[in-house]
C-alpha cells in the first residue's frame, strides 16, 4: 500500500530525500498506469472500470464518481475495495460532500474519525445510518474539471487506519481527476463525432435518395472549370447515358460524351456558355436558361437549366450545382395549342375541297411528319392518295408521281382505316416494300423512294362517314404514342374543315342541280302545256262552226295525251318528294305480273307504233305474286318508255319468267346503248346518259324505278354496249310482306 504521508524535503532524519523520491516515483507510476489504461478505453463504462481498478486501494477503499447531466449532478459509478468493482446502480443522489465541492469548485479533505465524515459522505438522512455503519475515517473530494469547465466530482473515503488520507493523497486525487476528466471528455467527443458521422451518413443517404427520386435533373461540379459534372439518376435517364458518365462538355477528351446543348436558333453552345460553367466562373446565379438537349445526334427534349455557384471558406467560387427540368411536354403542349389554333384558321380560310385537302396535308409537314398524304375515293371509284407532300423539296416530284399512280388495294392498312374508321399507329414498318402492295413495279417504283419507316393512319370521321384518311409518315424516327395522340387531335380539328368544304360543295352542286332541274322541268312542262293550249284552241274553233267530227276527235285525243303527259310529270315530282321524305306508300295485292306487262304494252301501243319500235313479248304466264300494282305499273312504263326513247326505231323485246328466287322482267332494246362510266350513275336522281336537249325527260324515271323495286325487296340492273342497245332487268321476290 502506498504511504501518502510525506515528510518535508528539508526535514532531519535518515532517509528523508530517498523516501521523497520513492513517493514521487510511485505517484508517477500510478498516474502513468492510469493514463495508459484510460487511453485504451473506448467508452464511458470502460473509463469507470479503469478508475476502480487503478484508484483503489491506493487512494482509499471507497470511491464515488458523480457527473453533471444537463446541469444536474448525478451518481455515475461507485467503487468499493478490495476489488474496485462497480458498486450500486448509477443515477443515485450524490453525497453532501460531492455537492459542496461541485458548488465551490475546490477540493476538500476531512480527516477523522469524526461524525462529520459520515454526514458528508451520506446523501441525506435516509443514507446516513448505512454510512455510519461502514465506519469511514477520512474522506476527500476533488472536482473533475477540463478547460475551466466542471464535469463532475470524484470522492474518496478510507475505513482502514493504515490508509490515511492527507494533502499528498488529495494532490494525487486531483491529478487522477484530471486524467479522468480528459478521458470522459475524449469519450464525449468520440460519441459526438460518432453521432455526427452517423448523422452525416444519414444526411448523405437521404440526399442520395432525394437525388435518385426527385423528378428533376441535378448536376454537381466540384471544380471551378467544371471538368467533371456528376449527374443524378433522372438526368442520366434523360441523357440515356450511364449514371457514372462525366456529362461535362469541359471534360477531358477521353471522357467527353456525345452531348450537345442547342439554343433557340439551333446553335450548339460551347462549354463556357453553359449555365453551370458560367456560375462557377463568375460566382453568380444563372437562372432559367432554355436549351434543346441532343445526345448521339438525336433530340432528347427541351430543358430549362438553372445553376448556382459553390464557394470555399474564403467565399471564392469552387464549383456549381445545376438543376435541370424537362419542359418538353409543356413546350410541346404550348406549340400544339398554337399549331391547332393556326391550323384551324388556315383550314377554314377556304371552302374549296381540293384546296382544303392541300392545306390539311401541307400543315402536317414538318410539324407532324416528314411525309403527309390525304387518301380518299377518286372519281373512278378507286381509293388513292388525293394529296401527298414530302418535307424534302427534291422528293416532291416523286411524291406527286406516287399520288397520281398509287392505287390502294383492299386489305391495305389505309383501305382498312378508310372502311373501319379506326386510327392505327405503325411504329416501324417491318418491310417497307410490303406497305406499297400493288405489284412488284409499285414496290420497287416511286413509293419505295419516299423512305417512310413509321406511319400513323388517322381517319377523318365525319357524321356522314369517313371523309378520308390522313397518312403521316416519318423517315428518321419511330412515331410515338404522344405523336399519335396529337395527330388524332389535329385530325379532329381538320375533320370540321373537310366536312364544311364537303357540305359547301354538296350545297353548291345541289343548287346547280336544282337550277338545272327547274330548267329541265320547266321545259318538259312547257312542251305539253303548249300543245294542250294549242289543241284546246282548235277545239274551241271547231266547236264554234260546223265541221268535220273526225277532226274534232283528233284534237281531243291530242289534248288527252298531253294532259296525261303533264300528269306523269307531276306524278314524278310528287314521287321525288315522297321518296325523299321516306313516305312512298305501297298497297300490296295478289296479281299476275305477265298480265300487267300486257296491259302496259297495250296502253303504250300507239306510242310504240309512232316511233316505229316493234314490240316482242315473251311472257311466261301466269306469274303470280304479291306486289303493289300501280307502282309496278310505273316501273314497267318507265322502262318501256326508255326503250322507246333510245331504241332508234328498232325492235324491243320484253321477257318475263320465273326464277328460283322469284320472278324476272327483262326489257331489251337495240338502240344507242350506255357507256360503262354512265351505267354506274344513270340510277341517280336527275341523272341521264344523254343530253336532255335531244331526248328530254326529268332524269327521274330510273331513280324512281330503283326506289320502288328496292322497296319491294328486289333489284334492278342494266347491261349495255354502246351502239348495240341496252337490257334492263328487274328481279322481284314473289311474295312481299306488308
UniProtKB/TrEMBL annotation:
It catalyses: ATP + protein L-histidine = ADP + protein N-phospho-L-histidine. Residues 520-736 form the Histidine kinase domain. Keywords: Kinase, Phosphoprotein, Transferase, Two-component regulatory system. Gene3D superfamilies: 1.10.287.130, 3.30.450.40, Histidine kinase-like ATPase, C-terminal domain, PAS domain. The keyword Acyltransferase does not apply. InterPro entries: GAF, GAF-like_dom_sf, HATPase_C_sf, HATPase_dom, His_kinase_dom, HisK_dim/P_dom, HisK_dim/P_sf, PAC. Residues 285-339 form the PAC domain. Transmembrane segments: none annotated. Its EC number is 2.7.13.3. This is histidine kinase.
